[in-house]
Amino acid sequence: MYLIHKTTHEKQLCEIKPISDSLLKRIAKKSFSFDWLELTEYDIFALNLQNEKKIVGLMALKNVPDELRIEIVLLEASKENVGEHKEYERIAGCLIAFACRQSFLKGYSGFVSLVPKTRLIPHYMNAYGFQQFGRQLASNYPNSQQLIKKYLSNEE
């Protein structure tokens, strides 16, 4: 999986791993806007650049086995990767695709949901193929497969 440096357009290999509470405490307030320490009851994953070990994204996932889905509770790019002047592209896509893969691994057929901020609904639908179900957005089997192929492989 890779990110693209916005200025040089170079691919930068990255990886997603669970983050320890101690590392989360060190980086959360410095590099991210949301207070991630409030979410320790969820599985929190960090997206980092492989060569630099720099964390550029965080995602909290909730396993909802009785509904056969994974819920993205929160997803955030680091402060320098938000907005027009961000350093890297594809952060959210890689994290969402990772959640889709987790759903397949748990036997949930790629079903992933999230409750977005109202202004982000069109973005999630257009950029990532989510469908709206009331207040929630969801990705299902075929869309989740496409996201995994697009963001988790090292091919374009």
Please describe what this structure looks like.
With 156 residues, the protein is an alpha+beta fold. Helix content is 29%, strand content 32%. The chain is built from 4 helices and 9 strands; from the N terminus they run E-E-H-E-E-E-E-H-E-H-E-E-H. It has a 9-stranded mixed sheet. A hairpin with a 4-residue loop joins strand 4 (55-64) and strand 5. Helix 2 crosses helix 4. The longest helix has 15 residues, at 91-105. The model has no long low-confidence stretch (mean pLDDT 93).
Any chance you could write out the topology, listing elements then pairs?
Elements lengths: L1 E4 L5 E8 L2 H11 L11 E7 L5 E10 L4 E9 L10 E2 L1 H15 L6 E3 L6 H8 L2 E3 L2 E4 L1 H12 L4
Helix pairs in contact: 2-4
List keywords for this structure.
156 residues; alpha+beta; 4 helices
Q: How far apart are the first and last residues' alpha carbons, in Å?
A: 10 Å
Largest sheet: 9 strands, mixed
Poorly predicted sequence stretches spanning 5 or more consecutive residues: none
Q: Note the total helix count.
A: 4
Strand order of the largest sheet: 6-1-2-3-4-5-7-9-8
Spatial extent as radius of gyration: 15 Å
**Averaging pLDDT over every residue, what do you get?**
93
Output the structural class. Answer: alpha+beta
Helix proportion? 25-40%
Shape, per Cα inertia axes: globular
Strand content: 25-35%
Count every beta strand, where a strand is a DSSP E run of 2 or more residues.
9
| Succession of helices and strands | EEHEEEEHEHEEH
